[in-house]
Amino acid sequence: MRKPRRDRYHHGDLKRALTAAARALLERDGPEAISFRAIAREIGVSQTAPYNHFQSKEDLMATLAAVGFCELEASQLAAAAAARPGRERLAALGADYVGFALKHPQLYRLMFGVGISDWSAHPHARDAKRASCRPIRDTLAEHLGDDGNARTDAIDTAAVAAWCLVHGLSALLIDKSLDIAKRGGQRALTDRVVSLFVAGLDLR
Amino acid sequence: MRKPRRDRYHHGDLKRALTAAARALLERDGPEAISFRAIAREIGVSQTAPYNHFQSKEDLMATLAAVGFCELEASQLAAAAAARPGRERLAALGADYVGFALKHPQLYRLMFGVGISDWSAHPHARDAKRASCRPIRDTLAEHLGDDGNARTDAIDTAAVAAWCLVHGLSALLIDKSLDIAKRGGQRALTDRVVSLFVAGLDLR
């Protein structure tokens, strides 16, 4: 009797190999291309092997998204640490956020709605998503001054608005809704859009 | 010989019926649920009938998206007409934009990237997308004052930023990334986010 091909892997190794194959496939062909069949084929194991490690395709997608959010948060924290406080740090966070999205466009599409229908079923991914926008919030709180309830509401609104701005810009750039060529490239446009927003804030 | 069932439809009527069925299916179950098979089943015609009217599923999706953008533009124009010029009109456009997206979340997801891989293959949809953000741009131009090249660049940046803001907010609300309950509901949050942005603009 022919041995199942997945015997070549230890249990943990196979899960890692499946996740790595899924990530590579995602970055190359997008969330629409992900299937257990395609991932198993990539690493030469049986089509049923993924079922031993992931409850469902969406469970695997949520894992990839959670990793993406952690990478985004790490990138944001590094960008914040490298910039001087105030407007400069906010601008650096904005540029870093959009830069991350454009470096990983298919991962970013997965992180925001393509391929996952119900985030509430994936609390680890949802929590990682919320954590990923915390560096922007913390930087705003530091510089708008968090010294009372009214101020807390203002900071919350500014943090939501900042996230909407960089997410919207990332999404519109990824789906090519914006004519970049006539606007001096995506980095120049990002800098102008982020600067306009930061300039409008009531920074002390 | 049994007549093909689609003989019940005149040519134009069948295309309309297919499009209407696709729109209903889209609004109910999302872009992921759209297939020629599912649409044909909805109106009781043969599975091959859609191929007589649409080159591909993506061609049908692009048609639905184009219709969506025209509806969004109509909604924006009506909102602009109903509001007084200046900040009030900008705020009304922001609220109307997000309101449209949340009234048609699955259509909006299709309009922005879920189910259409290459917009350049669908120039009518791409043009309709660009036209849909024109009411915001025109209102900004009217009130920031379009009286020179430098000013034109500033208006372009503000228009891009405004679109990013309302698109980002719509997308984050649709995929439930924002905790609405603790923020007084989506309309209240939208009003605060849009107000913060409008207040930061250099309006005359």
Describe the structure.
The first copy, chain A, is an all-alpha fold and about 200 residues long. Helices cover about 70% and strands about 0% of the residues of chain A. The first copy, chain A, contains 9 helices and no strands. Chain A has helices at about 10-30, 35-45, 55-80, 85-105, 105-110, 125-130, 135-145, 150-175, 185-200. In chain A, α3 runs parallel beside α7 (about 135-145) and α4 runs parallel beside α8 (about 150-175). The termini of chain A are far apart. The model of chain A has no long low-confidence stretch (mean pLDDT about 90).
Provide the succession of SSEs of chain A.
Answer: HHHHHHHHH
Largest interface: A-B, 39 and 39 residues
Span of the ends, CA to CA of chain A:
74 Å
| Main sheet summary of chain A | none
Helix residue percentage of chain A: 55-70%
Poorly predicted spans of chain A:
none
Q: Mean of the pLDDT scores of chain A?
A: 89
Per the principal axes of the C-alpha atoms, what is the gross shape of chain A? elongated
**If you compute it from the alpha carbons, what radius of gyration of chain A comes out, rounded to the nearest whole angstrom?**
20 Å
Record field, number of beta strands of chain A: 0
How many separate helices of chain A? 9
Structural features:
mainly alpha; elongated; 204 residues; homodimer
In a nutshell, what does this entry contain?
Two copies of one chain form a homodimer. Chain A is mostly helical.
